[in-house]
Amino acid sequence: MPHDMQALIFDCDGVLVDTERDGHRIAFNHAFREAGLDIEWDVERYGELLTTGGGKERMTRHFDETGWPDGADRGDLIARLHKVKTDAFMDLIEGGALPLRPGVARMVDAALGAGMQVAICSTSNERAVGAVVRVLLGEKRAARIPIFAGDMVPKKKPDPAVYDLAADELGLDPAACVVIEDSHIGLTAAKAAGMNCIVTVSTYTGDEDFTGADKVASDLDQGVDLDLCQSIVKDRENA
Question: Is 87 a catalytic residue?
Fold first, then answer.
């Protein structure tokens, strides 16, 4: 069966915008302060925690490694911290503190203009991802881009669940999809779902193993366009 490219799918954090160091990390630290916790994730510590997909999961890992607050209801604590963190992160996004990465708007417009499906598949929660898409890509684009987020699936990346969900919901052939990721766990998830994957390296991921990626670039303006994506799909068909 021939594969014409059907969809361009983006991860959010590190792909649409380099959010991790100066967005999510800052928002987590704000939540810890608000809760009266003596926790400050520096750049190095947050980089270690990024090997775990999902913000709630990162906090859980941190407390598992360093100790939980005395008497804490663990589930309630994580939920409360994450809500405050999400509010703080949205304030950063809506305040224009973090810009789109190079080439993102160009690639979104090219795919939409070619009649392809564009979607977002992220480990973050739907509210935070929606804010990024709405504020940084604009309402008109956002109305055409469905979001599949970490709180919609039972397992997060590197499990392929979020990509499997997008393919099922949108009626896509995974082999006809090109994913833009920035991390090893994202690449692993996309490939496990049977999709093609281009990696645009972000602040924290430069030293990761991207074996198996269809292309690795510093950003989308470094040799990545819709023709390349279509050729990746075609090359897979002919392999």
Answer: no
